[in-house]
Every structure is written in C-alpha cells, then in structure tokens.
Write a structure and sequence with these properties.
This protein is of the alpha+beta class and 298 residues long. It is built from 13 helices and 9 strands. It has 2 domains: 155 residues, no CATH class; 116 residues, no CATH class. Strand 4 and strand 5 form a beta hairpin. The model has no long low-confidence stretch (mean pLDDT 89).
C-alpha cells in the first residue's frame, strides 16, 4: 500500500487476482510475504510454461517481427491455399521444423514420452484454432501476394506485453492493476483484438480463477488500447477445445462480474476480516496454512 497525494493506493497483478478468486486466504498469505504452496501440480504448471516459452511465444514473437529470418518460409504457407486443411498442415509443419524439433533436440532426453505426446497434442490443438482464426479473415486471402505480409503483421502482435492501469473505488481508494498476457491477435476485418492464454491444467481445476485472471488482462487492454478484446484460453492438458469468449460477453463480464473480484482483492489487501475461505474445499486438505488460517483471517 502507498499514498498518492493523500489517496490510498493498493497494488496487485493478474496472478494475485487469480489466486484471490481461487482462495482469498491463500492470496492474503501471498501478499503478506509468506512462502507459497503450489495450487496446481508443479509438473503440470511447468508443461504450460514450456509450451508458451518454447513454442507458442517464440512463434508469435517471430511472426510479429519484420526481421524474422524465416519470414520467406512463413509467407510461403499462404501461397495457393484452397482449403483450411492445407493451411493447417503447413502451419503444423512450420512449427514442427522451426520450434518443436529444435526444442526436442536440446531437451528431449530429459522429457518423458508422455510429456512429448502431450506437447504434440497441445500443438495440434493450438494450430487447429490458429488456422481457423486466420481462415476467417477474408482480407488475408483476398490481398495480392505482395500485401499478404502486411496483413499478417497487422494480425500478429508482440506477445507478453505488460500493461497497467488504476482502478478507483467509489470512496477514492485506488488499486493499481498490472498483468502480462501470453499472446495477442488482431482481426483487421472486424477490428477486434483477441488475447490468448495458455494454461497447463484443465478447466475444471481453475475455471473461475482463470477467468478472473483473463478479465484483468481484458480490463487492462481496454484501459490502454480503448478496445474490449475477445478472450481465448487453451487448457493444454485436457481434450477440451479452447474456451473462446467473444468481446461482447467480455464487456458484460467486466461490467457485471469483474467489480466483485476487485472488491474481494481490496478486502484481502486491506486485511479486512473475515477473509472468506476458498470455495474449493479440496484445497484446504492440501494447504500448508489450513490449521491456522481461521485464526489468521477468520
């Protein structure tokens, strides 16, 4: 907490809000400086980070860059494409050759067969979604060949951009929120941005808290860019299709659901008791703080 011209200013990031929605008391311990216990299996979390840091993130970063050394090879993907299956196969081959294979050469000996198979399934799910997204942008396929690169640069934007903005409560107290989304795409035809998040767990594990984290990104994006984005969440270890939330539904959630998450986040940061227990009762049996959290925060 800080003071800004006599105003009270709290600070939190998107991860804090996610943890707060998962377990407010867990968030209270975290923001009080306590060493945290893992909410999700560490190996699963590591898988999600590996997929983003080694495959999807570098791909999005490279395509957004003008000086990408493989740009000619990437542009050839879009030559004479007559059906979405061709696009999907070419994207899959490109990702395999320039991202997956180099990663496996450097790290494959340390990975279990099950991890490699899961990585392949995650790539397949991602490529299927990306192909469908690109296929539904008419201007990409109607553009003359010499302009395709310009259209693609407008679609792909640099990943992992950190945003911040101030939320002012009705009594003047402020909450400075920050967050860094995974990836972003922009549809030049509909003028709609899309934020993408890759999660190394299934939707059943963290559905509410994961959505709260994505709403932080959407709120920050709107404050910084002036657009409400659509949201896409990939649950990499499940067989589920990506969860896609269109921008009009995101706008409705920001208006009707997001304020309550910020109110709860403020309550935690103010240490205003009672801080509620988690709605996920299975967490309590695994929590290091379970024996003391009632006396600390009840």
């Amino acid at each position: 907490m800080t003071l800004l011209r006599n105003a009270i200013v709290f600070a939190a990031n998107a991860t804090d809000v996610r943890i707060c929605m998962h377990c407010p008391r867990h968030c209270a311990y975290k923001t009080a400086g306590h060493k945290m216990w893992p909410v999700v299996n560490g190996e699963i979390v590591a898988f999600g980070k590996t997929f983003h840091n080694e495959i999807a993130g570098p791909f999005h970063k490279n395509i957004a860059e003008s000086f990408f050394t493989r740009r000619t090879e990437f542009l050839s993907i879009f030559k004479d494409v007559t059906e979405i299956g061709v696009l999907q196969e070419r994207l899959r081959n490109f990702v395999a050759e320039y991202y997956l294979v180099p990663f496996l050469k450097n790290n494959g000996s340390n990975l279990k067969i099950a991890n490699i198979e899961a990585l392949n399934r995650a790539i397949e799910k991602w490529i299927e979604h990306l192909s469908g997204y690109l296929w539904r942008i008419p201007s990409l396929w109607q553009a003359p060949r010499e302009l395709v690169d310009s259209v693609l640069k407008n679609i792909f934007h640099k990943p992992e951009q950190t945003l911040s903005a101030l939320h002012v409560f009705s009594d003047g107290v402020m909450l400075k929120l920050s967050g860094r989304y995974d990836c972003a795409l922009f549809n030049p035809d509909t003028k709609e941005p899309m934020l993408i998040e890759f999660k190394g767990y299934g939707s059943d594990d963290n559905a509410v808290s994961g959505l709260a984290q994505m709403l932080v990104y959407a709120w920050l994006f709107e404050k910084n860019a002036g657009f409400v984005p659509s949201l896409t969440v990939f649950y990499l270890v499940s067989n589920e299709a990506p969860e896609v939330i269109p921008s009009h539904m995101v706008a409705d959630m920001l208006k009707n659901n997001f304020p309550s998450a910020l109110d709860l986040m403020r309550r935690v940061l103010e240490r205003r008791r009672p801080i509620p227990r988690s709605d996920y009762t299975w967490l309590c049996s695994k929590c290091y703080f379970n024996a003391r959290c009632d006396s600390d925060w009840g």
